[in-house]
Structures are given as C-alpha cells and as structure tokens.
Specification:
The protein is α/β, with parallel strands linked by helices and 170 residues long. The relative contact order is 0.22.
C-alpha cells in the first residue's frame, strides 16, 4: 500500500470537497469524497443515515470506510467527523499526508446554513460551536500539515498554498 495520497480533514464547510477537486485537477491526482462512498455503500444520504440509524451508527460506517480505503495518488476529502474515528484516521495517516483545512468558526457558521439537512454528525443538543471545540484538537492531532484559511474569494490561493506545502507542482 502506498502513502502518496493527500487526505483533507477539517470542519464541515471548510471546503474539503471543493479544494479536493481543484487539487486533483492541478496535481494530476484522482479525487475521492468519503461522504460519497458512504452514500454509495449504504444506499442512503448522510442525513438519512443520521436520522434513521443514529449518530453512533454513522460514525461506525465512516470509520469502516476510512480504514478500508485503498488508493494511490488520490486526493481524499473526508467527512468532518472522520477525526472521531481513531482506526479510520490511523489508516488514512498510513496511506497519505493529512492536511487540516483550518477555517475559523465564524466562517464555518457563515457557510453552513443547512445544518439540519446537510448530514453533519452531531450529538443531540450540540451546536456547530460545540462540534468545533470538540474536533479542533483532533484535527490538530492528526494533521501532518495545516493550511489556514484566509480568503474565501480566492480558492486558487488556498490550493497553491496546499500544493506548495506538499511540494506538488501544477
């Protein structure tokens, strides 16, 4: 198994999927979104899994998908809750470089307007602020590289910054 993948982690709304597609385009790597793998594997949208099967069942599925991923030269966009799955994250760290897309909570709240329907793994009664506080130390723990968000209007700049930190060339 190769460790030449790039694994994107960060809060829901941090831009992992959008940045992942652009990184793949510029680097020549493939792209995979683990949320889409979960949807395909279960035949259900993320929110439906959370509503019907619950938070713990969702995390179990996400962990399974993370620890079974087998790819090469691929940009991997994880779900924001992947960092809650130790086995999944340990495997992802073995097969790639983990990049934390660090976006301030104010910007996350501005971007994520569809909390109830987006398929975000929350415990009952939690807010985006609570999720941010719980997960930030985990994002920092698992990250090999951290890229701080600076400007939403310039995705290219963020992509360039990630590519530079990983020594990739357009």
């Amino acid at each position: 198994m190769n460790n030449n993948n790039i694994i994107l982690i960060g809060m829901p709304g941090s831009g992992k999927s959008t940045l992942g597609v652009l990184l793949a385009k510029y680097s020549g790597y493939s792209f995979v979104d683990l949320d889409l793998i979960i949807t395909k594997k279960t035949g259900k949208k993320l929110q439906k899994i959370l509503d019907q099967d619950g938070y713990d069942a969702f995390l179990k599925i996400e962990n399974q998908v993370g620890k079974e991923l087998d790819c090469e030269k691929t940009i991997v966009a994880t779900g924001g809750s992947m960092v809650l799955s130790a086995e999944g994250m340990e495997h992802l760290k073995k097969i790639g470089t983990v990049v934390y897309i660090n976006v301030p909570i104010d910007e996350i709240i501005r971007r994520v307007t569809n909390v109830a329907t987006r398929g975000i793994a929350f415990k009952d009664g939690e807010t985006l602020n609570d999720v941010f506080k719980e997960r930030t130390p985990l994002y920092e723990k698992y990250a090999d590289v951290t890229v701080d968000f600076e400007n939403a209007s310039n995705l290219e700049e963020t992509v360039d910054k990630i590519m530079e930190k990983l020594n990739l060339h357009k």
